[in-house]
Amino acid sequence: MTLLSFRDVASYYGSARILDGVSLEVGPGERIGVLGRNGVGKTTVANTILGIATMKAGRLEIGGREMKAPRHFDAAHAGISIVPQGRRIIPVLTVRENLQLGAATRRPGPWTVEAIYDLFPILRERADRPGTALSGGQQQMLAIGRALMANPDLLVLDEPSEGLAPVIVDQLVDVLNRLGRAGTAIMLIEQNIGFVRDVVERYYVLSKGRVVDQGRLDGVSLEALKAHVSV
Amino acid sequence: MTIHILNGFVYGGLLYILSVGLVLIFGLRRVVNFAHGGLFMVGAYVGYAVALHAGFFTGLAAAIAVLAAIGILLDIGVFRPLQRHDPLLTVLVTFGILLILEDLVRSIWGKDYVTVSVPALLSGNVEFLGLQYPVYRLMVIALALVTMAGLTLWLKRSAIGLHVRASSVDAVTTAMQGVNTDRVSATVVGIGAALAGMSGVVAGPLLTLSPSMGSYILVDCFIVVVVGGLGSFTGAFLAAMAIGQIHNFGIVYLPWAASSIPFLIMIGVLIWRPQGLAGGAST
């Protein structure tokens, strides 16, 4: 069973078509990357899963179930947690409460507030501060921790390295590889090719709303990948 | 003097119970709900009608239950379908609902004023701060405090309270975490309407029931919400108590200006602090 499957999906914002026949899939424990330049529709892949973008053609399966018009909360119930672009930390909640919010659809699994604190010790130190009082890197840790609180089968991360210092990105690489080794599937939507290479096994390249290249990363040069995201 | 202060707290307490429902609904739905006055009035009449046969407290419970159901239907049938439209449209629809509710009550119970007796259990006076003060009025103040404490605990300590606070700021991100925000909204509007119904029943022995009672108190209610800061529970409590005092002292000492003083204060607050006294605070 695939955790996530797009088959010839066309997605829209209003009348603007953003995804134009995209097909991709993620199986249990897989680590895939979705690459492409700005504005090619990468975030719309996540937004289609969330029902923010409207799917008008094709077939979308989430957690093995076809969804014609997914509601925002359906993916979480199907075991897919999304770390959105820009983190979207809730400012009126503390760090601890932001984590607790992620447990709304909690399934059995290893991730608890304490386990998240062990993964990101800085969050324990800042537990009672407003979530948005953290630095960008810390907010990214919080967003990942919040997503893990559901004990998902698949973690979708949309541009997690955006605006982060290289040393923080290296920490994220370590964390995502640990999660991957523990069996959590990962879908990394990114422009940072170095980051993608350090985490994923397979990749899809989007251009103008279509998948224009895909395959395993083994043997693909960094320069060849960079050509897909450079202007 | 003490008696006027206590009476001010009674009216303030009543205003708070009514206004906090409006604050809850605005906080989550971003709807300025003119129908809230109608819910207050319907609650008063439902409580009155049931109390005639089954006693005051059964009437209170019935009004809370009926208004909670009406609130849920209001959310599902009106607020949810209109949530992506111009907010002004929703305001107009809620104003229409207020007029419909007034006509409905007028056709069932007539347009004459109705008086409601204080329940026997809470009748009589008790010595308080050196005064003989009505037990029922003290109970209204106590009910406002219990409502504030209960809502604060519910919002701060319960899982759904967490979801309500999160949804009121970012409903999409909250839903991403698996929270059914439509259900959260229906719950909140149901609770807000139930509070309006409860305040209507509680107001019965203090005010006179009439189909237009909701429209009258709605004006004070909006002043409370604006002065306190839209969406602020703490602000609503402080503003309700202040407006209660001003209302009461105005009637006693400046009767010619009593009805205009709250408006002047609202204008002053809007000029000095447009976000309200506690605007920007989440609770």
Task: Give a summary of the structure in a few sentences.
The complex is a heterodimer of chains A (231) and B (283). Chain A has 231 residues and is an alpha/beta fold.
Describe the structure.
The complex is a heterodimer of chains A (231) and B (283). In chain A, 33% of the residues lie in helices and 28% in strands. Chain A is of the alpha/beta class and 231 residues long. The mean pLDDT of chain A is 92. Chain B has one domain (2-211). In chain B, strands 1-2 form a two-stranded antiparallel ribbon. In chain B, α1 packs antiparallel against α10 (233-253) and α6 crosses α8 (181-203). Chains A and B meet through α2 and α3 of A and α6 and α7 of B.
Number of domains of chain B: 1
Q: N-to-C SSE series of chain B?
A: HHHHEEHHHHHHH
Task: Note the quaternary state here.
Answer: heterodimer
Count of DSSP strands of chain A: 10
- Work out the strand percent of chain B: under 5%
Question: According to CATH, what is the topology of chain A?
Answer: Rossmann fold
- N to C succession of SSEs of chain A: EEEHEEHEHHHHEHEHEEH
Radius of gyration of chain A: 17 Å
Overall shape of chain A: it is: globular
| Proportion in β-strands of chain A | 25-35%
Please describe the biggest sheet of chain B, giving its number of strands, its sense, and whether it closes into a barrel. 2 strands, antiparallel
